[in-house]
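Appendix B. Raw example, untouched.
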Amino acid sequence: MKIWQEITIGSSLGVLVFMAVIGLNVLPFLFIGGAALMFYKLSRAKVPSGHLTQAGHHTQLSQISFDDIGGQEVAKRELKEALDFLKKEEAACKLGIRPLKGILLTGPPGTGKTLLAKAAAAYTQASFVSASGSEFIEMYAGVGAQRIRKLFAKARQAAEKQNKTWAIIFIDEIEVLGGKRGQHTSHLEYDQTLNQLLVEMDGLKTDEGIRILLMGATNRVDLLDDALMRPGRFDRVIKVDLPDKEARLKILTIHTKNKPLNSDVTLEQIAQDTYGFSGAHLESLVNEAAIFALRQSENQVNYDHFEEALEKVMMGEKLLRRPPEHEMERIAVHELGHGFVSEWIRPGSVSAVTVTSRGNALGYMRQTPEDDFYLHTQQYLEGQIRIFLAGAVAEQIILKSSSTGAGNDFEQALRCARRMIGSGMSSLGIVSLDHLPASLLHKATGEILQQQKEKVWVFIEENKDLIEVLVQKLLEDEKISGLSLREMVQQQNEVNKKVV
């Protein structure tokens, strides 16, 4: 404690004692002094590094490197190239290169945009301040703009405390505050907040002691205002897409490093089965598999745990409800219709068929994804339509009636049919869906669906007896693996050949 503080406290105590001796009430003075001391202590308290500060801003030194992020090789390479202007500052100045003011990361949720921003801070040895776009929008006008100013000031202060020359500000969900102006006529706070952000970005000078790089993340880049997207503000737009099979394998390898895996676990197969998964999905998958192992008191995570976790991540948790027997039979017929036709179209494609309810699904047929591909042929789309229609057709042939359970299947079949029409794969030739009359679109869609339905009808009618045998097996076991399904089909075909 400093000497002047000791003198002040001693003098104050002496005055209070004197007042008490002469008969004055000192309680109000004690109360005021205690409150003043408490206020002083709170005002002097420092916020530890890495804890939430004003307005939810998070200040820290990032410990995440690009090596900790699986996949996204293209995004990491492009981001490193942009950040090298910061690391090689002297060389950039000699060539007259203006340092970047902003980098925008775009892509679906869970693909690692926030991780890339933190890795960028570690790569450049810059101070890192993060915030969410929703934190700047309030019902009171001017609050958002004030918070933007404080955010940039906070970044400079953090860099000074950490003896850094660069600070990175990361704003997640930047489309909330950076949306096109004029869309919120009754709420000018949105426009004021965006205007302040534009002013701050324009005010970032290359000769400042502390330089700031703004990084934003969004999955709706189409909503951002044109003024925010122009060069000189966001100089780079980096796409962070869903990982392909090779990237999924790298992500799985990272997340399973600290988990004991059984010898039957093949990460390559899991990477194959998780087509369309984001990095967040894969992390959740590995974690759920370990949870299943813990529930079963296992010392290692085996492939069955991953299978169960995969279904949970895709469909949700198992439900306790069990439909009545007649509905269970209908569900079994429906799902085996999907599975049987899927095996006909693409042998080896069925991973499992089950009548166990998960999430919003009473039952489901899970396919083993093919290798990643980015173009769909007419043959593929027609095959998908047949698989979508197969459940309803199986109900009509075996149970002699339809149900509402095929509603979602029909919607997906319609989407495939419209995609074919928009790609010039229908009798209409090359057309624009936006300018196509509704009557012609309806007719062309109906033709495509009817053609594929007739093919499915003939196939299921020919294999009706075999499907009925499989239905009874599915009702007994509640789940049939794709391997078991193929073996049963092969055995029954051999029996039929002997009878013939």
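End of appendix B.
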